[in-house]
Each structure stands twice: as C-alpha cells, then as structure tokens.
Amino acid sequence: MRSYLVVLATFVAALYLQTACAIEKLEVQGLFSNKVVLSVDGKLHIITVGKVSPEGVKVVSVNRQGAILEVDGKQKQYDLGSAVSTSFVKRKTHKQTIYINSGGMYMTYGNINGRSVRFLIDTGASAIVMNTEQAKQLGIRYDKVGIPASVSTASGFEKAFRVRLKSVTVGSITETNVEALIIDGNHPGPVLLGMTFLGRLRIEHSGNAMTLMQQ
C-alpha cells in the first residue's frame, strides 16, 4: 500500500509540473482582498491566496498592483491587466561528429554561402581561410567587398582580404555572418575551418572523434 501511494504521489507531481509548463498565456484580470481572478490560456478562475488553479498556478499573495504567482516553482509579480507569456522554447542542440582520417586530420564536407566545400578543421587558425581560386569558385567577390590585409604564413607574409560569409554550414550546424580570410595564391590547399566558426561552438574530443555542438 505504501509503495502504491508513493507511485501515485510521484505521478501527481509529474502531472502538475507538466501542466504548469504547458501554460502559454497568464493574466491577472481582477483583485479581491484575498482572491485573484486569473485568465489561464483564456480560462477564468477565481483563486484564493495559497490555492492552486487547475493548470498549476499558485496564488502566493495579492497587492495593489496585482499578485505574486508561482508557475513551475518560480514566483513572479503579475500586474493587473498585463498578459504574460510563460512559454519557453529551448533552442535545439545541433551536433556534428567528425572522425580523424589516416593522415591524422579532421576533414569534413560543408557549405559556404550554400555552395559545397571540403573543410580541414583547424583550431589553430584564427579564421576560416581559403585561397583566391577557392573564393572565386564559391562566388566570393573578395576583390570588390574584401578589406585588404596581410597575413603570416609558413612562407612569410602574404596579401589577403578579409570578408564576411553569409553562411557556413557543417552537418546540421549553420552560422551566419562569419569572418574569413582570402589569401592570394594557392595556399592553403583545403579550406581551413578556423575559430571564427569553431569559436561559436562547443568542441569535445573523444578518442579519434571530434564533436561540434551548437546551442
């Protein structure tokens, strides 16, 4: 019998939390000395201080401006006549796992401005880096919109252009307005996916796998 009551209590508590989290719109429409007229998703209730509505809204206290209500364990002041949305949509986490290749590098395919490209994941690169030929193939008019710059490479200083990419996508992860460097010549070989993209993500390593996470 005791175990049955525990299970029943757990079920009721879970049902209460689920109901409270489902509330979309909450409004205090009337005040009495110890009661509140509540509109919960369009349904009217008169709730006494200390009591809970069928949707799980508890009236904590009443004041001149409105009432303090408790929703999903959190107390907040709700002024008379002010409709408040209590819904919260958590941003979905996007993940992409990349495995190290036989050459000891993390390579993957993705998109820049909607066009396919092969990336070398490089946490040591301060930005996304590509050469001028790659930029032309991707339709990036660096000569028109780029800001002239000079970058240090293994062979010395090279002429470059700083640009902003409309979008960069790897798997289900997309970031917009990402800075990139276009280097004059044929360096680097693959497009380097550097920290102007990676720095916006959480990166985890496990064995021979690297997981990129966007939250």
What's the layout of helices and strands?
Blueprint: H1 2-21, E1 25-31, E2 35-40, E3 43-48, E4 58-62, E5 66-71, E6 74-79, E7 83-85, E8 94-99, E9 107-112, E10 115-121, E11 128-131, H2 132-137, H3 142-145, E12 147-153, E13 156-170, E14 173-183, E15 191-193, H4 195-198, E16 202-206, E17 209-214
Parallel strand pairs: 10-15, 11-14
Antiparallel strand pairs: 1-2, 1-7, 2-3, 4-5, 5-6, 8-17, 9-10, 9-13, 12-13, 13-14, 16-17
In short:
The protein has 215 residues and is of the alpha+beta class.
What this model shows, in words?
The protein is of the alpha+beta class and 215 residues long. The chain contains four helices and 17 strands. It folds into two domains: 2-85, SH3 type barrels (Roll), CATH 2.30.30; 94-214, Cathepsin D, subunit A, domain 1. The strands form four sheets. Strands 9, 10, 11, 12, 13, 14 and 15 form a seven-stranded mixed beta sheet that branches. Strands 3-2-1-7 form a four-stranded antiparallel beta sheet, with no helix packed on it. Strands 4-5-6 form a three-stranded antiparallel beta sheet, with no helix packed on it. The protein starts with a helix and ends with a strand.
* Structural class by helix and strand composition: alpha+beta
The percent range for helix content is 10-25%
- Report the CATH superfamily of the largest domain: Acid Proteases
CATH class of the largest domain: Mainly Beta
Shape: elongated
User: Could you say what the CATH topology of the largest domain is called?
Assistant: Cathepsin D, subunit A, domain 1
User: Strand count, sense and closure of the main sheet?
Assistant: 7 strands, mixed
Quaternary structure type? single chain
Rounded mean pLDDT is 84
Count of discrete domains: 2
What is the alpha-carbon Rg in Å? 28 Å
